[in-house]
Amino acid sequence: MREAVFVKQNSEKWQRYEVLEHGSPDELANRFIEITNDLAFARTFYPESKTTAYLNGLAFKLHQTLYKNRKERSNRFKTFWQTELPFIFWKYRRQLLYSLLFFVVACGIGALSAKYDDTFVRLIMGNNYVNMTNENIAKGDPFGVYKQEGPFQMFLRIALNNIFVSFMAFALGAFLSLGTVVALFRNGVMLGSFQYYFFSKGLGLQSVLVIWIHGTLEISAIVIAGAAGLILGNSFLFPGTYSRLESLKDGAKDGLKIIIGLIPVFLTAAFFEGFVTRHTEMPLWLSMLILAASAAFVTWYVVIYPTRLFKNHLITAHARTKN
């Protein structure tokens, strides 16, 4: 079937489902099943079309509406982490990818700038930090900065700072996404120059094994917070079939949910930085285990699990229609 014919046959139904008031749970479930069936058809025959993107958004909206009308309010905390947040990650997977690309490019720019300009690291990190690190390297303790403050005080300071940074990356998306891009670029350049500095001192591998104990979760969360900012800005720039105000409200709500969902990640990263990273002589296997576990968790929860969850919902919806 041609896409134009498919749209003509179903557009009236789709538009009706957009504006209908919330009905009974059974009625909402039927709407969701019909839309997911249409979405499955569109994903099969028109995978890159605007129709598929539109149905994806409508299916997500119906799923959220159905979820909110469930009676099991006592499980709200559990279902937020189990289904709601992963569905948001799946819905906005492109924004997550764009955020990652912006950040990686900025890291590369930072590293190249540090390589070809000896003063660049001092410009970005500050003279005091560079001088202190040089002194620590001379003493044989290049990562001594992580030992200069009490564990709990460091945990609290880092946690509050990272949560603030994530909220700022999100809020700056209100400036048509440009504010978030600038924030991602700034943090990426800082990381790239910072990491290159240690490689230039012959401490590259050691820096990865030490700094990325907390950095894996911390940097991943900053990239995800950047995606939340892009969601906010893009919801106004590209409202689709919704009014700009309605689209902005939805984008702000979904982006804020992502930021809230990142708080435990930032707390865990701050715990690692305050209590674990300071043990710079820990066994190699333990450092690699923490790094691998952190990277595996982020990849699974943000990419793999949401994809499987959505596919399972499509399969369930098809089974219901056949019965």
UniProtKB/TrEMBL annotation:
The keyword Membrane applies. It comes from the Bacteria. Keywords: Membrane, Transmembrane, Transmembrane helix. Pfam families: SpoIIM. The chain crosses the membrane at residues 96-116, 163-184, 196-213, 219-238, 258-276, 282-304. This is Stage II sporulation protein M. It comes from Pedobacter yulinensis.
